[in-house]
Specification:
Elements: E1 10-15, E2 27-42, H1 50-59, E3 63-71, H2 79-97, E4 104-109, H3 118-130, H4 137-143, E5 152-160, E6 163-172, E7 185-190, H5 196-209, E8 225-230, H6 241-264, E9 272-280, H7 283-295, H8 297-304, H9 310-318, E10 330-333, E11 336-340, E12 343-344, H10 347-356, E13 361-367, E14 373-380, H11 384-391
Parallel strand pairs: 3-4, 7-8, 9-13
Antiparallel strand pairs: 1-2, 2-3, 2-8, 5-6, 6-7, 9-14, 10-11, 10-13, 11-12
Helix pairs in contact: 1-2, 2-3, 5-6
Length: 395
């Protein structure tokens, strides 16, 4: 990782459009100097925000020049007027940059069910196009925040043949996080030379093992969007399989880093917990088991209470519709086993586990002893503060 978040041929900027009630940065722009290969992954929620519908269509072209994203309004559940607003945003920006509207990708995050104030958007775009600089990617990360407590940004430097390339990713999300592709937005920039099909393949595989393995509250947003742009200015030739694998691993590392930040910043969260299920009967059983435990409100409140209440974990596993035997289950908090053969290991083990649970980060491991498959997921605790944040979100 590096603290240099510039990428050759990309500029970024952010301004205050007035969409956020607190007067903070709320409109971000990222632009490539030249046409870039593009790939995207979008929410699986059947209620899909207008910018998701528009950007998904534009991504099909396999190329793009710009991403514009607003915070403070999701432009979701807004019907045809909302879709027209997303189109108008792309059109206004395309005219300001002198590019095609189809080369503009649009993203939004914020309150659902309210129309965008297009007068604010239209008024802000001219100034936004004038503040673009190569080193403003962190400002873009700041502008897309809603209930986030800090901007999320990560980078990777790799080599393809004799050429060095960079990957930089920004993300936002702290609530309504269980992407399954919170609102979760992620924008990846790279100067590597890669075609859109290979970029899509790398992005899909990386999303599956990173953003699709995190949960804050089990809710999937209407606006979840991951976009990747690669403009080829690193100058490498077509990627060999080995170089492609290195790029994909770098991409995955950046996205996993961002995923960890999202869960660590979960609304009201005080714990970052890695939940792992091993020796499941099948891959689907491993995934089902880990998701059920990671999303259980009773488990998450026990994490907050620093209580190794293994009965809640057993109950979650039992309703997960997986192959399991109660007397075959083992459970650990870090390296302290609290359940063996489906039975608790006593007060001393629980005392040691409770001490571990006072930390900000620890692991929860389940061994099903049913097969050879495993999966993992990042989750956080469920606190009083989460309820307060979401009870007051629109006020």
């Amino acid at each position: 990782m590096t603290n240099d978040y510039t990428v050759q041929g990309f500029k970024a900027g952010a301004v205050v459009a007035g969409l956020k009630k607190n007067g903070a940065l709320d409109l971000a722009l990222i632009v490539s100097d030249r046409e870039a290969a593009v790939a995207g992954v979008f929410t699986t929620n059947k209620v899909r925000a207008a910018p998701v519908i528009l950007s998904e269509k534009h991504v099909e072209n396999g190329k793009a020049r710009a991403i514009i994203a607003n915070a403070g309004n999701a432009n979701a559940c807004t019907g045809d007027p909302g879709l027209n607003d997303a189109r108008r945003t792309a059109d206004l920006l395309s005219r300001g940059l002198g590019i095609n509207p189809e080369d503009v990708l649009v993203a939004s995050t914020g309150v659902i069910g309210e129309y965008l104030d297009m007068d604010l958007i239209a008024g802000a775009i001219p100034g936004l196009t004038k503040v673009l600089t190569p080193d403003a990617v962190p400002l873009a990360a700041q502008a897309i925040m809603t209930t986030d407590s800090f901007p999320k940004i990560s980078s990777f430097v790799g080599r393809a043949g004799e050429h060095t390339y960079r990957i930089v990713g920004i993300a936002k999300g702290a609530g309504m996080i269980m992407p399954d592709m919170a609102t979760m937005l992620c924008f990846i920039l790279s100067d590597i030379n890669i075609n859109s099909d290979d970029l899509k393949r790398a992005l899909l595989s990386s999303v599956e093992t990173t953003f699709n393995r995190i949960s804050v509250d089990g809710d999937t947003s209407t606006n979840d969007t991951v976009l990747a742009m690669a403009n080829g200015l690193a100058g490498n030739k077509d990627l060999h399989e080995e170089d492609y694998d290195i790029f994909t691993e770098g991409l995955r590392n950046v996205m996993w880093d961002l995923a960890r930040m999202i869960v660590r910043d979960g609304e009201g969260a005080t714990k970052l917990v890695s939940v792992e299920v091993k020796n499941a009967f099948s891959p689907s059983d491993a995934l089902m088991a880990v998701k059920t435990v990671a999303n259980s409100s009773l488990v998450k409140t026990a994490l907050y209470g620093q209580d190794p209440n293994w009965g809640r974990i057993m109950a979650a596993l039992g309703r997960a519709d997986i192959e399991m035997r109660e007397d075959g289950v083992g459970i650990w908090i870090d390296d302290v086993q609290i359940v063996a053969g489906g039975l608790g290991r006593g007060a001393e083990a629980e005392k040691l586990a409770a001490e571990i649970m006072t930390r900000k980060e620890f692991s929860l491991t389940v061994d099903l002893h049913q097969g050879g498959y495993h999966d993992r997921m990042l989750t956080c605790d469920l606190t009083h503060e989460y309820v307060t944040i979401n009870a007051d979100y629109r006020t």
